[in-house]
Every structure is written in structure tokens, then in C-alpha cells.
Predict the 3D structure of the following.
Amino acid sequence: MVPLPYYLALSAVLFVIGVAGVVIRRNIIVILMSIELMLNAVNLTFIAFARFLGSMDGQVIVFFVMTVAAAEAVVGLAIIISVFRHRQTLDPQDMQFLRW
């Protein structure tokens, strides 16, 4: 059995890669994939703690996070398709019209 700190270290590395993808990249598709990577890193942490503590609470939260991630992907891709049809670009800098 793999010890808990290994899972937490892997989760932290995945989360940092996701944050770097959101901050550094300029492609909106890559930004969405980086957000999904961060959510999966959190899921890994929940699963690791659930297994370590012998509780089902973490697994229930993971199902909730996966549901929110699926909804986020659907809404995000719909917005991206709509913006691309109107602007012919996916550069986040050109999407200033979505800000207040």
C-alpha cells in the first residue's frame, strides 16, 4: 500500500501544473483542461484521505466534484464555441467583452 504523503505529493504536483496552465497559457482550451487537472488533483486528495481514514465521505465529495466538473466543461465549451463563431479567435485577451 502506498503511503498517504505520496498521494498528497502527487496531488500537489498535479495542482501546481494546473495552476501554471491557467496562469501561463493563452489558449482557452488549455485553460479549461488545466482547471480539470486541478479538480482531479483535489479528487485525488479526497480519495487518499477517504482511504486513509476509512470513511466514505471523501468519495461522496469526489462524485460531487466530478458532477460540477462535467457541468463546467459543458458550459465552458458552449461559451467557447459561441465566442469562436462570433470572434473567430480563442485568445482570452480578445474576450474582454465578457468582463463587467
Observations:
- The mean pLDDT is 88.
- The radius of gyration is 17 Å.
- DSSP finds three helices and no strands in the chain.
